[in-house]
Amino acid sequence: MVLVFAEATNGKFKKAAHEAITYGTKTAAAMGTECVALTIGQVENAGDLGRFGATKVYNVNSDATATFDSGVYAAAIAEAAKQLGAKVIVMIHDSTGKSVMGRVAARLDAGSAPGVNSVPTVSGGGLTVRKSVFSGKAFAEVEITSEYKVISVAGNSIPVEETGAAATVESLDLALPASRTKVLETQRATGRIPLPEAELVVSGGRGLKGPENWNVIEDLAEALGATTACSRPVADVDWRPHHEHVGQTGVAIRPNLYIAAGISGAIQHLAGVNNSKTIVVINKDPEAPFFKAADYGVVGDLFEVLPKLTEAVKAYKA
Ligand code: FAD
């Protein structure tokens, strides 16, 4: 059996949860078994996960799971896998998945593969998965041979497929450890789609000259329904919040469209964005290295180009 931890935020499932279920369903089909979903805490419409292939949805909801705690969540996932007899555990490769998967693997003495981007092939008792390595410059094929296998799926790498109908939801009673941390405050960083899941991203760099000029980035993002991002130096000097910083030391993204304005295209920046499906670069310097990685390039002043692009998007949508 394949068990997918379908993460929800404020009770609602993200697109990445549907991707993980799709991934789990395809993996289960390759193994000749079924895929079930696990939800933790209070969630809305959990049965809907059946539409993406989960044959059943299990929910763990107790005082211990009221707020996110990676130790408690990991215990819940590992115990659910043991109780249900699931040998493959799938989750989303986001901050929650990253903080939980190592603990789940340790509890189950499992081999793990973080950030995979293709459905595994099955050979005997092993699963071979593909993941990008060296900041997206190469792919590695990894065979997991342990009895339990823990996998996290990179965002936007598996197209969501609707294959089934709503599934039944069953509560799972598990003995969970008490939380050893206490959440004092939760702040939502932005009203927009979080960067790792965003399909459209508009990003600015030092070419913007200062935080007071970010309206040109915000306006285009607003018109497109995109999420905003930035280069590292911009976050380092507090022009933008750190959670917007993309690159080797920031968030790695794989949107369908990445528009970069006033960013030179240093290798450390490219490391986090070069998996984008289409890259558009706006830079006044025709020699900017980013143009080599771009699908479309505009040589020009971003303060002229971005407002025109925004007007064009608005006119197209009107
Ligand atoms: P710049 O390199 O200064 O480029 C600004 C660009 O704007 C120029 O190309 C210029 O031609 C253009 N421009 C200026 N005015 C205009 C205008 N009016 N219209 C159009 N274009 C204009 N960087 C990251 O982004 N992410 C990372 O994760 C990251 N990690 C790093 C890790 C390490 C260990 C190190 C050493 C560096 C890292 N960096 C990272 C920094 C990286 O090397 C670059 O310094 C950084 O990406 C440059 O940011 P930038 O492109 O915004 O600025």
The Cα radius of gyration reads 21 Å
Distinct ligands, ions and cofactors found in the model: flavin-adenine dinucleotide
Order of neighbouring strands in the sheet with most strands: 7-11-6-1-4-5-12
Low-confidence stretches: none
Oligomer: single chain
Q: How many strands, what sense, and barrel or not for the largest sheet?
A: 7 strands, parallel
- The sequence of SSEs as H and E is EEEHEEHEHEEEEEEEHEHEHEHEH
Helix/strand-derived category reads alpha/beta
Mean pLDDT: 94
Features:
8 helices; alpha/beta; 28% helix; elongated; 318 residues; Electron transfer flavoprotein alpha subunit; binds flavin-adenine dinucleotide; 5-stranded parallel sheet
Walkthrough of the structure:
Keywords: Electron transport, Transport. This is Electron transfer flavoprotein alpha subunit. Pfam families: ETF, ETF_alpha. Belongs to the ETF alpha-subunit/FixB family. There is one protein chain. By secondary structure, this protein is an alpha/beta fold. Helices cover 28% and strands 25% of the residues. It has helices at residues 15-31, 70-84, 95-108, 215-224, 232-236, 267-273, 290-293, 302-317; strands spanning 2-5, 8-9, 12-13, 35-40, 56-60, 88-92, 111-116, 121-123, 126-133, 138-144, 149-153, 168-171, 200-204, 227-230, 257-261, 278-283, 296-299. The strands form four sheets. It has a seven-stranded parallel sheet, sandwiched between helices. It has a five-stranded parallel sheet with strand order 14-13-15-16-17. The longest helix is centred in the N-terminal third of the chain and has 17 residues, at 15-31. The mean pLDDT is 94. The protein binds flavin-adenine dinucleotide. Flavin-adenine dinucleotide binds at residues 205-207, 231-234, 245, 247-250, 262-264, 266, 268-269, 272, 282-285, 288, 301-303.
